[in-house]
Amino acid sequence: GWPGIGIKHVNVTLPIGEGELEFSSDKLVFRIGPSSLFPPAYFVSLNMTRLKKGGDLYLKLAQSSSVSASLDASDLNLEQISLPGLDEAFAGIVNAESNVTIDTVDLSKSGGYLHSNMSNVKTPNYMVSLPMAPFLIPGLVVGTVDIRANIKNGIVEIPSFKFGSSEADLKGTLSGDVRL
């Protein structure tokens, strides 16, 4: 692989919209390099191991006439990810693998996959502000989530999306496809 910067005992803050994602990791490796020479394109990868609240996370992004993203999460504890607009984090453990390429010129040339298994998932409380009166959507115990999705020829096929275990407040299954 390309040379990179390795840092130990690091906190990383990634801007997401108007908010931020914060991670603390025992080790971080950051790399930048060419992902292709013709047409020229570059990639950025971030590899965080032994995150403070548990798990490992690898992200890789590349862009040319298409945008490519890879993700590998191993035993990632969701409680360490704060999302904008939420006072609390989601709870749960994620194992996920994804590799997606979106062709920005011709979406029908897009492809990739997402496989994810989650356990002990719980949604946070969420306050909805309406002009009449605010109301609280309570946190829900979901338990397990299993997602399988494939992208081929610009069509996202979801053969399996199952959520909820026997003790869950929310459970169901979804399948279908979406044209990009």
- Tally of separate helices: 0
Strand content: over 45%
Structural category is mainly beta
Rough shape? Answer: globular
- The stretches of 5 or more residues where confidence is low (pLDDT under 50) are none
Helix-strand pattern, N to C?
EEEEEEEEEEEE
- Using only C-alpha atoms, the radius of gyration works out to 18 Å
Task: Find the count of extended strands (DSSP E, 2+ residues).
Answer: 12
Q: Which bin fits the share of residues in helices? A: under 10%
Spatial ordering of strands, largest sheet: 1-2-3-4-5-6-7-10-11-12
Major sheet summary line: 10 strands, antiparallel
Average pLDDT score: 86
Distance N to C terminus:
32 Å
Question: Can you describe what's shown?
Answer:
The protein is an all-beta fold and 180 residues long. The chain is 0% helix and 68% strand. It is built from no helices and twelve strands. It has strands spanning 4-16, 19-36, 41-51, 56-63, 66-77, 91-103, 111-122, 126-128, 135-137, 141-152, 155-163, 172-179. The strands form two sheets. A ten-stranded antiparallel sheet has the order 1-2-3-4-5-6-7-10-11-12, with no helix packed on it. A two-stranded antiparallel sheet has the order 8-9. It is globular and about 50 Å long. The protein starts with a strand and ends with a strand.
Tags for this entry?
globular; mainly beta; two-stranded antiparallel sheet; 180 residues; ten-stranded antiparallel sheet; 12 strands
Record the SSE blueprint:
Layout lengths: L3 E13 L2 E18 L4 E11 L4 E8 L2 E12 L13 E13 L7 E12 L3 E3 L6 E3 L3 E12 L2 E9 L8 E8 L1
Antiparallel strand pairs: 1-2, 2-3, 3-4, 4-5, 5-6, 6-7, 7-10, 8-9, 10-11, 11-12
